[in-house]
């Protein structure tokens, strides 16, 4: 029978499930399935020899697997072969742990020939080899997690601390995506089993290491680490004495009242939904707060239990509930803080809505919560040492806790966002719309022109006032009857256009501006722009109009003294001599003519303003013409 062709040098072992396995070849004595105990012992022997090598695992790990499994034509491991390899490695690990226990050495130091640390440890060496094979995909990715679970189950708590140190050192490799997906549940089960074995009072640091590892190993939005339903740990029951005993230094009723608060703290949901329980809690809390207020602590009491001096004081998980210790506990600042902080957490839960849209507290309950919360905060401020700093830290923590509560209520949305990939613009592709520096295209373009041409701001053609003929040309075209412009679209209907035109005419064409009072806005248009028939219309004097009653009365009253003054002038000039009366009649005729001329102009002046005309301008024009009439009268008299 011909020898099977060797596999390519660059071919690695991969897992092949049963459904993907090719059709089995005829039975052969050379290639049988690895399943017997003899084959398992052979695999263990191959890996024992590999553990004695001093080279890095990447130099011999793959060859070791090939020698142990001896794959035939396939260059991958099938499911049965991978399972056999895992069983053999778990057996080898069990034998190494048993040998370490018999030798009296620590598990993670077994095999160190020269006491040179963990670099020569056989168990660490085995874990490094399997971890390398799992990382490269040569074996199933969850195999190294299974070995770590078996190792922690076979070790004592003291040895588990060293094992967990190895896990922490390989955290980056174990957290890779190709390994995390297959081993996260096994690692979670391993850590939870360790936490159950540890003492919450004596192994606080180790418990914290495990929790911190899980926080870094699992993503922040991992739902397995969240209490989605908001279930409380009601099994944590605080037991205290129900009957009074001899030798108690404090009131036993206060003792029961104080420790009965723990029943409400362990299950806040039951207290908030039951009015009777809430009334009981409120009354008991009032008694406790009154006692704390009546017995304030001094600075000397704070120095007895200073957190800066005694590090162990920070690890008090549960206080003893003996009634004989009640007097000492009341003088302990940490004990008071422990109770008061529990109250703040309890109030914070009552005020914040939960997952199931529970109803908030009622109006009366809100007032009680608010008043009790203020009393608790005042007590925390006066508890030495550093009461104000402590209260500020607690408030900051509770404020951050609200964000956590709302995040869970919204469905635990993922915090991680995929990185933004900049897409390169292909040739002929559509470019991205630019963002304007100054808000819009026009302002940005003006600024760009100023940068390119420094003289753009001083150019005399940049801002230019139009001439009178240029500005009034559109209105002149609309005034042509042949144009047929409707009143709605006529330029004289545009108030802004008329207002700007009057300003131009007041500066450049005073004669045209003066015609505004007689003919309105159309009279301001220069005559050279108008057709002959239209120009003739605005060249003649306007028709007389009826005066307003108020304007007529005011002008009549002001003109009467002036006529009397003019009539008396010839007699004064004559010096009383008997001159020709006709010489004195000439000024009177001139005065009458001027008055008649004033009467002819005044109706037009006092008439209502035409389009674009305003009354203040008409009043100023009337006063000016009245003064002109008076001066003409005096000149004629002389």
TrEMBL record:
**InterPro entries assigned:** THO_THOC1
Q: Which Pfam families match?
A: efThoc1
Q: Where is the segment annotated Disordered?
A: 1-37, 540-638
Looking at the record's lineage, which domain of life comes first?
Eukaryota
Comp. bias regions, Basic and acidic residues: 542-555, 622-638
PANTHER family xref list: HPR1, THO COMPLEX SUBUNIT 1
Protein name as it appears in the record = THO complex subunit 1
Recorded source organism is Urochloa decumbens
């Amino acid at each position: 029978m011909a020898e099977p062709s060797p596999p390519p040098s660059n071919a690695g072992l991969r897992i092949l499930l049963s459904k993907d396995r090719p059709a089995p070849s005829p039975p052969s004595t050379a290639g049988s399935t690895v399943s017997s105990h003899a084959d398992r012992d052979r695999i263990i022997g191959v890996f024992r020899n590999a553990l004695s090598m001093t080279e890095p695992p990447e130099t011999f790990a793959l060859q070791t697997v090939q020698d142990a499994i001896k794959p035939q034509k396939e260059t991958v491991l099938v499911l049965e072969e991978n399972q056999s390899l895992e069983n053999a490695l778990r057996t080898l690990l069990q034998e190494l742990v048993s040998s370490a226990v018999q030798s009296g050495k620590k598990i993670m130091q077994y095999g160190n020939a020269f006491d040179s640390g963990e670099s020569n440890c056989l168990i660490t060496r085995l874990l490094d080899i399997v971890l390398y094979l799992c990382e490269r995909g040569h074996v199933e990715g969850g195999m190294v997690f299974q070995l770590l679970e078996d190792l922690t189950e076979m070790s004592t708590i003291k040895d588990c601390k060293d094992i967990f140190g190895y896990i922490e050192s390989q955290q980056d490799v174990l957290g890779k995506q190709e390994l995390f997906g297959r081993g996260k549940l096994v690692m979670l089960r391993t850590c939870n089993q360790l936490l159950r074995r540890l003492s919450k009072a004596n192994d606080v640091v180790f418990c914290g290491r495990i929790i911190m590892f899980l926080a870094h190993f699992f993503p922040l939005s991992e739902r397995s680490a969240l209490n989605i339903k908001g279930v409380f740990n009601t099994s944590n029951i605080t037991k205290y004495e129900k009957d009074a005993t001899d030798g108690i230094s404090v009131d036993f009723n206060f003792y029961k009242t104080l420790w009965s608060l723990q029943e409400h703290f362990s299950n806040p949901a039951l207290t908030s939904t039951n009015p009777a329980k809430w009334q009981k809690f409120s009354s008991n809390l009032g008694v406790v707060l009154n006692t704390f207020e009546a017995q304030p602590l001094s600075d000397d009491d704070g120095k007895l239990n200073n957190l800066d001096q005694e590090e162990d004081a920070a690890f008090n998980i549960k206080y003893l509930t003996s009634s004989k210790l009640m007097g000492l506990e009341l003088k302990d600042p940490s004990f008071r803080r422990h109770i008061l902080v529990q109250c703040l957490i309890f109030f914070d839960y009552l005020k914040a809505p939960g997952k199931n849209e529970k109803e908030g507290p009622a109006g009366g309950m809100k007032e009680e919560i608010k008043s009790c919360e203020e009393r608790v905060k005042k007590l925390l401020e006066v508890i030495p040492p550093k009461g104000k700093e402590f209260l500020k830290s607690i408030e900051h923590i509770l404020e951050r806790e609200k964000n956590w509560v709302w995040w869970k209520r919204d469905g635990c949305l993922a915090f991680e966002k995929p990185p933004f990939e900049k897409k390169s613009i292909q040739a002929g592709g559509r470019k991205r719309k630019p963002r304007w520096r100054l808000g819009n295209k026009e302002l940005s373009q003006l600024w760009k022109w100023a940068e390119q041409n420094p003289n753009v701001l001083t150019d005399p053609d940049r801002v230019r006032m139009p001439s009178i003929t240029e500005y009034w040309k559109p209105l002149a075209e609309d005034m042509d009857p042949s144009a047929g412009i409707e009143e709605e679209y006529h330029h004289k209907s545009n108030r802004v256009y008329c207002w700007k035109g009057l300003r131009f005419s007041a500066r450049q064409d005073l004669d045209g501006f003066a015609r505004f009072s007689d003919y309105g806005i159309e009279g301001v248009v220069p005559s050279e722009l108008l057709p002959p028939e239209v120009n003739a219309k605005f060249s003649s004097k306007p028709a007389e109009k009826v005066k307003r009653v108020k304007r007529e009365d005011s002008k009549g009253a002001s003109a009467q003294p002036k006529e009397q003054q003019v009539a008396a002038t010839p007699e004064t000039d004559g010096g009383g001599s008997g001159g020709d009366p006709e010489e004195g009649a000439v000024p009177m005729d001139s005065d009458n003519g001027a008055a008649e001329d004033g009467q002819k102009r005044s109706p037009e002046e006092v008439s209502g303003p035409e389009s674009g005309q305003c009354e203040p301008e008409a009043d100023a024009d009337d006063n000016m013409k009245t003064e002109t009439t008076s001066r003409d009268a005096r000149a004629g008299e002389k």
